[in-house]
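User: Teach me something about this protein's shape.
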Amino acid sequence: MRDNESLREFVKRFGQAVLQIEACSMDAVLQIFKRSICPGTPFFESLAKKPPITMDDLFRRANKYSMLEDDVRAATQQVLVAGRPARNNTEGSNKPPDRPKPSDRKQKG
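Assistant: First, the predicted structure itself:
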């Protein structure tokens, strides 16, 4: 995988490359695929635990994990946007200025 390349983009590029090869064993394709993705990722672990039997199985599972990756990326973006500090722009603000509380005023006796 290239730096900053999503699993979806890699799978698309890998699939196009596999189509250009005339004869290739499933085992060879799987080994090349596994060497190309990041070790330690959930998808890599899934492939290690249960290797796919067919190309369709490989790409179906890759699609499943790429959707998960997309969801995580979208959630991260939402957190980053929501976590930005508010602008300190009081102009145009509908909030009234802070006033002292009645209990804070000194009582005259």
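Now, about its shape. The chain has a mean pLDDT of 79. Residues 7-82 form one domain. If you'd like, I can walk through any region in more detail.
User: That's plenty for now, thanks!
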